[in-house]
Design goal:
CATH architecture of the largest domain: 3-Layer(aba) Sandwich
CATH topology of the largest domain: Rossmann fold
Number of helices: 16
Structural class: alpha/beta
Number of domains: 3
Helix content: 25-40%
Shape: globular
Bound molecules: flavin-adenine dinucleotide
Strand content: 15-25%
CATH class of the largest domain: Alpha Beta
CATH superfamily of the largest domain: NAD(P)-binding Rossmann-like Domain
Number of strands: 17
Oligomer: single chain
Largest sheet: 7 strands, mixed
Length: 415
């Protein structure tokens, strides 16, 4: 019960933990993204007697997380905000970042879907129009396990918009158990009614209590969190942080250090073929307020049309509690899945349909990101049996930052 209150639905996801990990006197964490950084921080701060080595193959920490800035423009290349979960709030609090973490703008909740040439506000109406029976049938099918999101939520456009927005893939290609385990009832069931657990969880948030459905973000973007984790890790005597280092297999990492395989925590992709990822180009477009006065304030628009070079437009400067654009301006983040992108010019031209014909003050390609695929049956294929080494991060049992952060706490709890 205590665990459910601490982690909620995260307990439905397998924890890929090696039983002997907590007996390690030296632990090697592979991958310096949010997962590796948080796992290293949680273990090293709990157990000063355990030596924690973190190795990152690149020349910077943060993995897919990075914040682009230019003068007063600020935009995250990957995740830009977190949904509510006490584990994330606990991390922010423990890192002393409370004064740089704020709820998102409650007036920017609206989401739209652009389909067949028109924009429609996302609401319960399309669901009711297609008939609740249709949905119930989908739900029943999904609970048999291993089904796609398209089967679980039989609402074309809505399901594609949702999965494109979360995992850059079409609903038919995404495992419903992975994306919505509480809906498909994957994994363990809570010991009491979910509503009661939720209300107990709500009482545990440090810093501030989030409103229902709200998100929260950092002054200066997600890079603020990465910088704070790096800073804390550098302060800990039992941590060794190495960039431009890494090996291709957990066995090689263990052998090179003369540690048991069970002392390796793999927080990076593993055994994934190149086609087990999709790719996304990320752009920013900034405008003077008057030039986009017709674009309503909101969270953003999802565009499930495969012939469009754009799959989503996020209203960055509307959403966050702290500024993302110079005074008198608005900033939008554009998501463009490859190979739909075409050229940068194609993407820019497509903006006229959604944001108006004015020339943006800023238009820049700010990054490319590879996103793991999670095909139907993926979650059931993960074992929750004991492993020979520990696996963590978004390449395994959950895609969100709340998952990655809660999982790190769950692993450290075993020490
Ligand atoms: C465009 C985009 C938008 C997103 N939006 C959201 C959102 O709104 N909400 C949300 O909750 N989540 C979102 N996410 C997901 C979120 O960013 C991830 O859950 C999280 O950042 C994953 O962190 P990670 O450490 O598991 O993986 P990564 O960030 O991929 O880190 C893995 C690290 O391992 C390193 N590495 C790889 N191989 C080796 C090796 N052999 N040796 C050593 N190091 C290695 C890599 O260089 C990398 O630094 C988004 C992601 C993207 C790309």
């Amino acid at each position: 019960m205590e665990e459910w209150v601490r982690y909620g639905d995260e307990l439905r996801r397998p924890l890929c933990l090696a039983t002997d990990l907590p007996r390690s006197s030296t632990v090697c964490v592979v991958g310096g993204g949010l997962s590796g950084l948080t796992v290293a921080y949680r273990i090293a701060s709990k157990r000063p007697d355990v030596h924690v080595e973190l190795i990152e193959k690149g020349d910077r920490l943060g993995g897919v997380i990075e914040t682009w800035t230019q003068d007063d423009w600020v935009c995250d290349v990957a995740v830009n905000a977190t949904r509510a979960h006490p584990a994330f709030w606990r991390l922010v609090d423990d890192l002393g970042l409370g004064d740089r973490f704020a709820p998102s703008n409650p007036e920017a909740n609206a989401r739209w879907i652009y389909s067949q040439g028109r924009s429609q506000k996302l609401s319960i109406w399309p669901v009711l129009k297609r008939g609740p029976l249709n949905l119930l049938r989908g739900l029943r099918t999904a609970r048999r396990g291993g089904r796609s999101v398209a089967e679980a939520v039989p609402l074309a456009h809505v399901n594609d918009a949702m999965t494109l927005g979360i995992v850059n893939d079409r609903a038919a290609n995404v495992d419903a158990d992975f994306l919505m385990p509480s809906m498909t009832r994957f994994g363990a069931e809570p010991p009491i009614k979910w509503k009661r657990i939720k209300s107990k969880m709500n009482a545990t948030y440090p810093l501030f209590q989030p409103n229902k459905g709200a998100t929260a973000s950092f002054t200066g973007g997600m890079q603020t969190l990465i910088d704070a984790l790096e800073h804390e890790l550098n302060l800990l005597d039992n941590v060794e942080l190495t960039l431009n280092a890494g090996d291709t297999t957990p066995t090689a990492v263990a052998d090179q250090r003369g540690i048991p395989l069970a002392s390796v925590i793999w927080c990076a992709p593993l055994d994934r073929r190149p086609d087990a990822f999709t790719t996304l180009n990320v752009y920013v477009a900034g405008y003077g307020n008057d030039d986009v006065a017709n674009v309503p304030v909101g969270y953003g628009t999802l565009i499930p049309d495969p012939s469009s070079p754009i799959s989503g437009i996020l209203h960055e400067s509307d959403v966050h509690g702290t500024p993302r654009a110079p005074a008198g301006h608005r900033l939008f983040r554009i998501m463009s899945p490859t190979p739909q992108t075409g050229s940068h010019e194609t993407v820019k031209a497509a903006l006229t349909k959604h944001l108006g014909t004015a020339e943006p003050v800023v238009f820049e390609h700010i990054g490319v990101r590879s996103i793991p695929s999670y095909p139907p049956g993926y979650m059931a294929s993960l074992s929750s049996e004991s492993m020979d080494f520990t696996r963590a991060g978004w390449c395994f049992s959950g895609v969100s930052v709340t998952h990655v952060v809660a999982e790190a706490e769950r692993i450290a709890e075993h020490f």
